[in-house]
């Protein structure tokens, strides 16, 4: 496959680019060209409905209780994959979070007091 691409690139054949659109490049080419698009261009091909339409159709099909049961099974399966921290790690993580929160509260309170004093001094 790569040999075919190399020989096409050397020959200057653009048939691969026309059959496999790359998204932005084809849209940019269609916008910037002043000539009308030919009937075989990518811009004139019919495309299937958007993903949003497909997702909306799938979400409404099926029994809601079956979907809920499937969702709960998937949640349990994902929770089994989780590597839970042991007691020592949990204590350490909790302490780190609490120290960070206390530091941030003190920092913001200090800045707030400094601004209040500054405004009071300025407009006193």
**Major pleated sheet:** none
Distance between the termini: 79 Å
Q: What gyration radius follows from the Cα positions, in whole Å?
A: 30 Å
Overall pLDDT level: 75
Point out poorly predicted stretches. Answer: none
Strand content: under 5%
Overall shape: elongated
Q: Roughly how much helix do the residues carry, as a percent range?
A: over 70%
Oligomeric state of the chains present here = single chain
Decide which structural class fits the backbone. mainly alpha
Could you spell the SSE succession in H and E letters?
A: HHHHHH
Condensed summary:
The protein has 124 residues and is mainly α.
What features would you highlight for this structure?
0% strand, mainly alpha, 72% helix, 124 residues, elongated
Explain what the structure shows:
By secondary structure, this protein is an all-alpha fold. It is built from six helices and no strands. The chain has helices at 2-11, 15-19, 24-32, 51-60, 64-81, 87-123. The longest helix has 37 residues, at 87-123. The mean pLDDT is 75.
């Amino acid at each position: 496959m790569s040999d075919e691409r190399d020989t096409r690139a050397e020959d200057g054949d653009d048939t691969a680019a026309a059959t496999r659109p790359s998204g932005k490049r084809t849209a940019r080419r269609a916008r910037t060209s002043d000539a009308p698009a030919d009937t075989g261009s990518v811009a004139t091909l019919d495309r299937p409905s958007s993903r949003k339409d497909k997702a909306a159709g799938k979400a409404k099909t099926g029994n809601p209780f079956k979907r809920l049961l499937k969702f709960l099974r998937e949640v349990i399966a994902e929770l089994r994959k989780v590597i839970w921290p042991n007691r020592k790690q949990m204590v350490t993580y909790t302490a780190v979070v609490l120290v960070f929160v206390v530091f941030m509260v003190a920092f913001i309170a200090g800045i707030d007091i400094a601004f209040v004093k500054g405004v009071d001094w300025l407009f006193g």
